[in-house]
Structure formats: C-alpha cells, structure tokens
Amino acid sequence: LIxxxxxxxxxxxxxxxxxxxxxxxxxxxxxxxxxxxxxxIIQAFIGTDVKTPKWGSTYHLVWIxxxxxxxxxxxxxxxxRSYEDRYVLCLFLVLVLFFHYNSIYLMGLTxxxxxxxxxxxxxxxxxxxxLFKWKKMFHFxxxxxxVGTVFAIVAPDFGVGHFGFWNTxxxxxxxxxxxxxxxxxxxxxxxxxxxxxxxxxxVGFTAYISFCYVLGTILNGYQDVxxxxxxxxxxxxxxTAFDYFPFLQFVEDYxxxxxRFIVYPLVFVFVYLGFSALSMLFxxxxxxxxxxxDDMLELRRSAIDLLEKITKKKSKIPxxxxx
Length: 323
Fold this sequence. Notes:
- The chain has twelve helices and two strands.
- The protein has helices at 2-10, 19-35, 39-46, 58-78, 83-102, 118-131, 135-154, 165-186, 196-221, 223-226, 238-244, 265-311, and strands spanning 256-258, 261-263.
- Helix 6 (118-131) runs antiparallel to helix 7.
- The longest helix is centred in the C-terminal third of the chain and has 47 residues, at 265-311.
- It starts with a helix and ends in a 12-residue tail after the last helix.
C-alpha cells in the first residue's frame, strides 16, 4: 500500500542504481517487519501468562522508556533529512497505526470496540489529516491525542497477561498514538502550533466529547437489550474514575432521568474542563519547546561556523533544516 501511495501521490520510483536506496532498504526492512508484526505473532513466539502487569513495574517502565527512546531516536535521525524521507517515515507510521488498530476486529466486533475512544479514533483521524494535509484536524488531534495517550501510558488500564493480545495491543496502540503526531509535527510535516490551534482544539474536542457522551448515554440506556455497557472517553465508569479522583464523587449525586436514560451533567463538565486544561498546558509546553529547539539550532550553527573558521574547511554537518 505504501509504495502505491508514494507512486500515485508523489510520483516516487525506487532508484535501482542508487546505492543509498539499497542501503536504506536493507537497514529499514527489519524495523518495518517488526513494526508491522501482528500482535498474535508476538504471543506465538513469546507466549503469555495469567498475571496482570502492575503500575510502575519493570514491564510498565520498559514500555515508557522504549516509546520515548524510539520517538527521540527517529526525530534526531530524520530531522535534517529531505522532505521525501521524512514524509515516507511518517506515512509508514500513520498506516501502521491504522492497520494495527483495525486488527482488534480479529477478536470480533462489539459496541465496546467501536473506534470512539480518543486513542482509537486517532487511527482514522491521523490518516485523514496526513493524506489530505488537513492542518486544522491535525492540530486538534495533536493536542488531544498526546494528552490522552500520555494519561493512558502513565495510568495504564492493563488486563491479564503480560503479552496477551489485549495488553500487547494496548502497548502498541498508545505508543503509536504518541509517536505519530510527535514526529509529524517535530519533523515539520505540519506547521507549528499557533494561537489558532486552540480554536481548532476546542471545536474538535467539543464535537468529539459531545458525540461520545450522547452516544454512550443512549447505548447504556439500552444495555438491557444489547447486553453491553460502554465507557466512551471514560465518562461512564464511575468506580474507576473515583479511584483516581475520589474528591469528585459528589458529581454522581446530580443527574437527570429521561426514561431509561440517565444524564450526569457535572461528569461531562468536569471531564471537559479538566481535559481541556491539561491540553492547554500541553499547548504552552509545546510552544516553549519551539523556543528551546530554535535556541539549540542556533547554538549548533554557531558551533559549526566556529569549527569551519578554525579548520578553514566546509563542514559536512548540516546546519539548516531541509524544507
């Protein structure tokens, strides 16, 4: 699929006589195979157990370390590469995220597995935003999804089995949801966040969370018919929520009943405001990172200029981004 997209969309052709093309192919193939390995293959080789991974365990910490290490490694390896190289990398990761998420339907389709959790619907929104270069959607997804996936990584909802299907899927899914937007923005496939990005976020997030709350309320109202309950955006599982935020238990006392449907307005308000506050703090952190990156890049240029002045030779170390 990737070669077809590159050939049709960008008129890319593999340069058979180019040694660098073959070098990149040989070096990249193992990483591509690993990234596209289905979850059940990992189980087949490693197996699993009946234990539930704990928060702060070696399993948890290694996952965090590997995710951060891969993100930083790819950023520093590709930041001075051509647009074509950066585009291919991000296109590959976007498609891997898309196919990885949809692999859950091998386990059957249920209401709970519909792609309405923020980190699940990201598989579709990032693909659309990337292929159509839709800046507004990407900026919303960047702010909302990274905050959401960081929360999921810091406070993971692990199930039984260290390398069971659902735990492995959980790890891969949230790692990709962090890596994809971080690299797409960091490698300049999309413009930097601006103050208008705040507007894009609130329009997108208001529409998303309202849809989730309305749909979740309706489906849970018919749980006696469907035999299922849903917890879209984690607004309907009060027990788990109050384990993390016990001081908010009072919101359960304020509700409206409409036949079989129960609406908890304060739950919606607190989730909306709390998540948006975290997203705005993240927006400010990213803007600070822009200044830090610019300062480091300027320092790098000054150091290379000084080296060239001392050696009186043109340095092969890149000083400027290729855009």
